[in-house]
Structures are given as C-alpha cells and as structure tokens.
Design a protein that fits this description.
The chain is 49% helix and 16% strand. It is of the alpha/beta class and 211 residues long. The model has no long low-confidence stretch (mean pLDDT 92). The protein has helices at residues 23-31, 41-46, 53-62, 70-86, 106-112, 129-143, 151-165, 168-171, 186-197, 201-208; strands spanning 10-17, 36-40, 96-100, 116-125, 177-181. A five-stranded parallel beta sheet has the order 2-3-1-4-5. The protein is globular and about 50 Å long. It binds adenosine-5'-diphosphate. Adenosine-5'-diphosphate binds next to α1, α2 and α3. The site of adenosine-5'-diphosphate has 19 residues, from α1, α2 and α3.
C-alpha cells in the first residue's frame, strides 16, 4: 500500500521581480540543484491546451498583459504542486520549493498561506525599465513568447507588476525579504541567493537529512 505522505506547509523560497528581471532564469538554475524544486506559475498556464476553455482564457488574459483570476490560479497551482509531490518529483520533506510567478498579488499571497511557509523572498530589483524591455524583446524572439511581442503588452505587464505584484513586498515585510540587484550577471545573483539560503535553519535541517 502506498505510504501516506504527510506534509505541513511547503518550505518555500519566493522569487519576485518585474517581467524580464530574471525570475525564471534564476528559478530554473536553482531548481537544477538537488534539494530545490522549481515551479513557475507561468509554465503551468503555458502547459494548458489552448483548445480548452481554460487554455483560451489564459491566452486572453496573458495577451493583454493581465493576470488570470486568483481563485483559478491558486486552484491550478495547487493541483500542479500536489501532482508533483505525489509523483515524487518534488519531495516536500527534503526539498525547498522555489516559486516564481506566484503569488502575484496580495490576495494570492493570502490564499497560499495554507500551503506555503515562506522562508525567503528574493526581490530581483531592476529600476531600469529600458534594460528589462530589451531582455523581454530578446525573449519574445527566442522563446516565442506572444506576451512579450508588443510594446503595449510589455508596458501593461510592467503596470500590472507595479500596481498588483509589488505590494507583496509589504505583505511579507521583514527579514524574509532580500533585495537583489537584478542587473548583475546571473551568476552573481545566484551566488547572492545561495548565500542567504545557507543561513536558514531549514537549510541546516535539510542538509542533516541527506542520505
Ligand atoms: P514573466 O516571468 O515574464 O513575468 P510569467 O511567465 O510568469 O511571466 O507569466 C505569463 C502570464 O501568465 C502573465 O502575464 C499572466 O497572464 C499569467 N500568470 C502567470 N502567473 C500568474 C499568477 N500567479 N496569477 C495570475 N496570472 C498569472
């Protein structure tokens, strides 16, 4: 009989930043290190079949630079993370969960309280919107991201970030929040993040459990 797995809240590291700040890049690299599991909310939406009503809804919102409704987002995210845990891709007892793209507003942060224990929030800060726009344009070409293709949608995404996502920094205020300069080389941003993570008690606990 399958072992009944009990988890309390997932030990979580959040990566927050404007579109183009490098959340996905950092999340992916961090997630490739043993004991870190990366989950990007945008990838969960992009994996939807666009022929389904839900997939169509995503295309409609994302192509305007808008967020998907909160309840739907959290439900879909929750189903995805549990699926990963059930299939042992993500092992909540020994892995950190690295989230990028969720929570994206304070309402989502509240809804996630039941699921995640936020240990650190890395804010990838890059006030230079010209640099971010340059990165997004490059990504639109390379990764076929329809939501980065037009100037108007990019500007809308920045506005959504300022109005809805940035207030999350106040919601988690305190020593959990670490501001990092996102215009540094990616390796330096990663270095800074790892330095902070290694100071966590949870890091020591997880290290002590290694086989
Ligand atoms: P980026 O990394 O460039 O900021 P994402 O790949 O995270 O963008 O997200 C792409 C789009 O998916 C968003 O513009 C939004 O429409 C939708 N989306 C992703 N995550 C969320 C979320 N947590 N809540 C609502 N909508 C979301």
């Amino acid at each position: 009989m399958a072992e009944q797995r009990q988890y309390t809240r997932f030990r979580t590291i959040l990566i927050l930043g404007a579109p183009g700040s490098g959340k996905g890049t950092q999340g992916k690299v961090l997630g490739s290190i043993p004991r870190f599991h990366h989950l990007a909310c945008g990838d969960v939406f992009r994996s939807l079949d666009t022929r389904t009503p839900l997939g169509q809804e995503f295309v409609n919102y994302a192509s305007k630079g808008q967020l998907m409704p909160d309840d739907l987002t959290v439900q879909l995210w929750r189903a995805n993370v549990h699926q990963r845990a059930e299939s042992y891709l993500f092992k909540p007892d020994i892995d950190f969960l690295v989230l990028d793209g969720i929570p994206r507003n304070v309402e989502q942060a509240k809804l996630l309280e039941a699921d995640v224990e936020v240990l650190k929030l890395f804010h990838l800060s890059c006030p230079d919107r010209t640099e971010l726009t340059r990165r997004l344009r490059k990504r639109a070409l390379k990764d076929n991201r329809f939501d980065d293709a037009s100037e108007e949608v990019i500007q809308n995404r920045f506005k959504t970030y300022e109005d809805e996502t940035k207030p999350i920094l106040d919601y988690y205020a305190g020593d959990k929040v670490v501001d990092l300069d996102a215009s540094q080389p990616p390796a330096k941003v990663l270095y800074d993040m790892l330095g902070e993570i290694m100071k966590l008690d949870a890091w020591k606990e997880i290290e002590a459990k290694k086989a």
